[in-house]
Amino acid sequence: MEFVLSEKTLQVIDGVLDEDLLSSGATCALLVDRSGYLIANRGDPSDIDVVALAALSAANYGVTEEIARLVGEDNFSLLFHKGATENIHYTKIGDDFFLITLFNKDVSLGLMRLKTAKVKSHLLPILQEDN
Amino acid sequence: MSFLDLSKREVHVKIVYYGPGRGGKTTNLLHIHEAMTDAVRGQMVSIDTKQDRTLFFDFLPLSIGKIFGFDIRIQLFTVPGQVIYNATRKLVLKGVDGVAFVADSQVSQREKNIESLENLRDNLADIGVDISKIPLVLQFNKQDLAAEGIPLLSEADMVSDLNSVYNVPCFNASALTGEGVFETLREISKTTVKSVARKLMPSLTSGMT
After folding, report:
1. Cross-strand partners of B74
2. Which one of A9, B39, B66, B72 is least enclosed by Cβ atoms within 10 Å?
3. Containing structural domain, residue B189
4. For A54, which residue in chain B has the nearest alpha carbon?
């Protein structure tokens, strides 16, 4: 399978990430494919190596899915890492993509979950339509 | 799954270094990382155990030249070779575009090479990929051990064991000294990029912007 991303689609994706996540306080939002490719990257990742973050997160996501399967679940509904200042939230988008949202301690997890669900509903048809 | 970014004019391909445990897959990537300039290489990430065995994978992104005006970005991954880590090997193979199989040339590792290649075939089949249809290169690693008097398999034996069916390019190598490392990388990169370009040809030539 090959994935081709047109400039127009990327602009739409960037717009959705800006409007729904960055404007709500997320510091960074990455759209990643399950093989580990970074598709889109918005916000200020400052000194984070986003290419490595995408590859590691794809592995992390795959592992979590396998663990879920081992205990008889299709997947866990929430994948979230909480740090002292930075938090990471993962959202599955269809079978081939997921969203990584970074946000700090001043933003609530509940708000990010609401916003990422909205992003998912916006991006899923776009990604499916493009390929 | 290869990925074509028409906005940044980049082609992304994924190459996995596969093979038996302790065969030198990580050493291949380390040598590549050390030999490349910062302009070409990204940060190398390794997830290994305390015994320096790869637990999950190593990851090294490279930028190597252009095709049809598109920058080529290659993501190199290794898998853990130990038999018990098959679930993680399958995860790393997801979306693979080409495979470099690193075999251990020691006589004592003969069966492990064959088992690992069969395991690669089975794991690819599980994700719907036919091993005979994906770019594949073999590397016969650890040739330097001959100088220490350690018995090695002959090239003919290695070819008979591993390459009689697939008949793909193969290289003698010593990842520790660097011999054969870049020949392997060059060949698997070339065949993988060609293979991906064939599939993406309409988009590459039209630009679709």
Report:
1. B13, B62
2. B39
3. 3-201
4. B59
Half-sphere exposure of B24 (CA within 13 A, CB side): 31
Range of the domain at A31: 7-124
In degrees and rounded to multiples of 5, residue B140 shows phi and psi of -100, 95
Tokens of B149: 């008097």
How high does pLDDT run on average in chain B?
92
Instruction: Characterize the bridge pairing of strands B70-78 and B54-67.
Output: antiparallel
Q: Model pTM?
A: 0.89
What's the CATH code of the domain at B110? Answer: 3.40.50.300
What tens digit of pLDDT does each residue of A82-105 get?
999 999 999 999 988 999 999 999
Q: Who among B14, B45, B200 is closest to A56 (CB)?
A: B45
The number of domains in chain B is: 1
In a domain, A32, yes or no: yes
Q: Give the C-alpha separation, B44 to B29, whole Å.
A: 8
| Distance between CA atoms of residues A49 and A54, nearest Å | 9
Strand pairing of B136-141 and A86-93?
Answer: unpaired
